[in-house]
Every structure is written in structure tokens, then in C-alpha cells.
Amino acid sequence: MAKPYPYDLIPELGGRRPDLEPGTYVAEVEAMTPGSSKKGLYQISATYRVAEPTDVAGTPLWEYYTVGTNDDPDAEDPATWQNSSFARQWKRVLTKARVPVTKDVDTDCAAAVGRRLLVETFKEVEPAKDKLGNDNPYAGKIKNRVRETWAIGEKAAAGAPRPLTGSSVGPERSLVCPLCS
What we know:
Helix content is 14%, strand content 28%. It has helices spanning 78-83, 85-96, 105-112, and strands spanning 24-36, 42-52, 60-66, 116-125, 142-150. The protein has a five-stranded antiparallel β-sheet, sandwiched between helices.
């Protein structure tokens, strides 16, 4: 007997949904794990799932906070953490998700799981070469990335921007203040 399945609803390989428009969404931390990057640098991997709005709920977002450097691959030196933009982004996630910080990476990562925060997303096209200079098997694929985070209630979660209409909208869908023009 044939079994039908919803082919068109199945996300592309990797689970990324290119139909997630850039916008602000409520997301839940599904996983946060310390480990190593492909280059062997200390890294914290995070998986977020969009929780709201419901029409895109379940969409995964992956972020990698690489703290280690070539000079300090295991991020043992406090200065490595202090100078890392990825460490600052990770700290912001912990703060905005209201994680009770213990200053222990494993404990703080575990405490982040299940917490919700607002994420602003954007689309990024995979380059032809990865950061190591190797051919990228995902070249040209669109992936959803997290640009910014806020605590729940700190900003409205509007989802993807909706098309605007009216005289205040220019050709690039930008708003023009009627008092300023």
C-alpha cells in the first residue's frame, strides 16, 4: 500500500527553513553545548527553536560562539574571553534569557536550555569556501542567523515584517516620516 507524505513541507537538508523571513521572533534554547570548532577552537554551540509566531514555530536556528583563538585554542586565558566578540554575544544570550549565571560554562549552558528570549534573524548565503579554505558543500544555501537578542518583554516580537502600503513607503519598502519629509 502506498503511503503519502507531505514532500513540500519537509525542510531542506540540515533542517533550515529558508522561508523564515528576517524579523524578530520568540525562540527557546533547545540545546547549548561547549565543544570545539572544526579548527579545534573552544566553541559553544547553540540550537534555538522559534516558538512564536505559530506559523513558523519549530524552525531551528543554529549559532556557534567560537571563543578560542589560534594562540589560546582552549580559551584558558581570561583575556581570550574578554577580547572575544563571540563571548560577548554568548554572555548577552545568557543575560537576555535570564539564566542564573554561575560562571561555569557547563552549568550555565545547561541552565539556558528551555529558556525563551527574542531573536532578530537575518539570512546569510553560504560562501563557496569555508573558513578553512575548503570547498563548502552547502555553497549557495541560505541559512537563518541570529543578529540580536532581547529579553522577553524588552521588545515586541513582530515576526517577519509585513509588506507596507501607502504614501509613506518608498521603493525599498522603507518608511519615510511624513513630518520629516
